[in-house]
Design brief:
The chain is α/β, with parallel strands linked by helices. The chain has 9 helices and 15 strands. The protein has 2 domains: 46-131 and 227-264, Periplasmic binding protein-like II (D-Maltodextrin-Binding Protein, domain 2, 3-Layer(aba) Sandwich), CATH 3.40.190.10; 132-226, 3-Layer(aba) Sandwich (D-Maltodextrin-Binding Protein, domain 2). Helix 2 packs across helix 8 (237-253) and helix 2 runs antiparallel to helix 9.
Length: 268
């Protein structure tokens, strides 16, 4: 009798262990499923991110801190995608961003970079995150320049390495293009009379005039509609896909609109 009782106790214990093992296996499976939701991509723990520091309101220095629309957006994307920004966001001159991605100095760049076929040959891009274009800024008392055609024979300030500089080269026959590394130099050259007009991205021109350039006005239409994208060093397909998924999520959950409204006003 004692042996039979002991045998039943042993069997019950064995069954209990098997049930617990099965439950544990189920939990592991659920955990694997949960991991797969955020682990579809083979990502590094962190990436080196670079930006500009004078493209208001996208990225600029304020009280010693790099702030702006792009800075908040890439921070939110990194959090959503599940990777860290390696240290602080680095800064360099705009014309050094693409070469830096090519040489491996940087892995991700966010700096109001227009997506072009030429650039897509050297770096990869995320889905577009901002629709832009090119416009003209002149002194408020200038009545002679009202369109692209009026820039023929004029001295025009723009940014070195920008699509605006390329646009001017391709669309004007007689011109003097003065490219500058820093955007404040572009506008100051018009304000102090060294250039007849400035040509650059519409959101930056409008923001500068609204906040700083009291003596300037925007004229003419918006030329060459273009999209900004996050640039990524070639060979990081999973990173591109993860950034695109994160960007889509930020649009869906309202985070993108919150960041946009903070820097540009209501997106409605």
């Amino acid at each position: 009798m004692f042996r039979k009782k002991k045998s039943w106790i042993f069997m019950l214990a064995l069954i209990s262990l098997l049930v617990l093992a099965a439950c544990g296996s189920g939990d592991d499976s659920a955990g694997d499923d949960a991991d797969s939701d955020n682990g579809d991509y083979d990502l590094n723990d962190s990436y080196t991110v670079v930006s500009d520091n004078s493209f208001v309101p996208f990225e600029f220095m304020e009280d010693g801190e790099l702030v702006g629309f792009d800075i908040e957006l890439i921070t939110a994307i990194a959090e959503e995608a599940g990777f860290e920004i390696d240290g602080e966001i680095q800064t360099t001159n705009f014309d050094g961003i693409i070469p830096g991605l090519q040489t491996g100095q940087f892995e991700i760049a966010v700096a109001g970079i227009s997506i072009t076929e030429e650039r897509k040959g050297t770096v990869d891009f995320s889905d577009p995150y901002y629709e832009s274009g090119i416009t003209i800024a002149v002194p408020e008392d200038n009545e002679d320049i009202n369109s692209l055609e009026d820039l023929e024979g004029k001295t025009i300030a723009t940014r070195l390495g920008s699509t605006s500089a390329q646009f001017l080269e391709e669309n004007l026959e007689e011109k003097q293009i003065d490219p500058y590394e820093q955007l404040d130099q572009v506008y100051m050259s018009v304000e102090n009379g060294n250039a007849d007009a400035a040509v650059y991205d519409l959101p930056n021109v409008e923001y500068y005039i609204a906040t700083t350039g009291d003596g300037l006005k925007a004229v003419g239409e918006t030329y060459q509609a273009e999209d900004y994208g996050i640039a990524i060093a070639k060979g990081n397909e999973d990173l591109v896909a993860a950034i695109n998924d994160a960007l889509a999520t930020l649009h869906e959950n309202g985070t993108y609109d919150e960041i946009y409204d903070k820097w540009f006003g209501s997106s409605e």
